[in-house]
Amino acid sequence: MDKLTIKQVRVLNDLSQKQMAFKLDMPLGTYQKKEQGRSPFTFLEVVKICEAFNVDINKIQVD
User: Fold this and answer.
1) Cβ distance 61 to 5 under 8 Å?
2) pLDDT per residue rounded down to tens, the chain (63 residues)
3) Residues with Cβ < 8 Å from 34, sequence gap 6 or more?
4) Over the chain, what HEC string results?
5) pTM
6) Residue 33: CB partners within 8 Å, gap ≥ 6?
């Protein structure tokens, strides 16, 4: 089973990085660093993304 990155979830839902950052209540620059792998997503952020987009948390790749 292939896993989805947070970026793939964002793109599949036709959101810009700015829109995704807004959904997660974080600055755009912070979101960009996380999406680029320069800073990790927290577990709670991943849960929030999964709930918002109805994605099974086991299908998310966070590394």
Assistant:
1) yes
2) 589 999 999 999 999 999 999 999 999 999 999 999 999 999 999 999 999 999 999 999 987
3) 6, 40, 41, 45
4) CCCEEHHHHHHHCCCCHHHHHHHCCCCHHHHHHHHCCCCCCCHHHHHHHHHHHCCCHHHEECC
5) 0.88
6) 39
